[in-house]
Amino acid sequence: MTREDGFHTVQLRQMTITSDGWLTMLPFNHGGVTLGGVSEEKLIGTFEAVDFGNTTPAFTGESNRSKVDEIISPTFTIELKANGTVRFDSRKEGRWLLEDDSYRVKMTFSDVTYEGVVCNMKDDSGKIVTAVSLLGSDNSSVWCMK
Fold first, then answer.
1. Tally of domains in the chain
2. The pLDDT of residue 54
3. Buried (b) or exposed (e) across 94-105, using 16+ Cβ within 10 A?
4. Nearest alpha carbon to residue 77 among 57, 63, 91
5. Is residue 73 part of a domain?
6. 55 with 18: CB under 8 angstroms?
7. Which residues pair with 77 in a beta bridge?
8. Which residues are bridge partners to 48 per DSSP?
9. Res 59 pLDDT > 70
10. Is 46 inside a domain boundary?
């Protein structure tokens, strides 16, 4: 990240472990984040999300800048409902569950199961948000915040 005065700033992102043992990275700069203490009621609602997919684009030559729009993942919404259902960008519906330890979450759709973690953390503007980091059974990564 580059500040307005042109100096580079280093940001550290916390990595956590999903319930099935995989590392996942939280979406915002680490600033004393403590996992736990997030209730189901806090998770109900609409999150802004980005799906990073499961591929790594490969570009050759000097025309890489013209391909930037092809690799930037667009944002979409995920809606978690009180009855345990979830709508993923109005394309998929499934189920969600906050595990007993109050920071591990699971979302299941017909073709992919996502395991992840949820916490309260500061976004880039300093506002406290509920953030979710998910890893899919298809090796995709999704970050969500509200």
1. 1
2. 77
3. bebebeeebbbb
4. 91
5. yes
6. no
7. 48
8. 77, 145
9. no
10. yes
Which letter, b or e, does each residue of 82-91 get, where b requires 16 or more Cβ atoms within 10 Å of its Cβ? eeeebebeee
Which structural domain range is residue 29 located in? 13-56+67-145
Output the pLDDT for position 84: 94
Residue for token pair 């500061």:
122
98-132 pLDDT, tens digit per residue, is: 987 678 999 998 788 999 999 888 888 888 888 89
HSE-CB for 125 with a 13 A CA cutoff: 3
Q: Which residues pair with 25 in a beta bridge?
A: 15
Q: What is the mean pLDDT of residues 68-94?
A: 83
**Mapping DSSP to helix (H, G, I), strand (E, B) and coil, where does residue 31 land?**
coil
Q: What is the pTM of this model?
A: 0.80
Residue at 5 is within a domain:
no
What region, left, alpha or beta, does residue 65 occupy, with left being phi > 0 and alpha being psi -120 to 50 degrees?
alpha
pLDDT of 66: 59
Is the per-residue pLDDT at 3 higher than 60? no
Give mean pLDDT, residues 141-145: 91
CATH number assigned to the domain comprising residue 118: 2.40.128.10
Within-domain flag for 7: no
Residue type, 78: I
Report the C-alpha gap between 142 and 134 in whole angstroms: 5
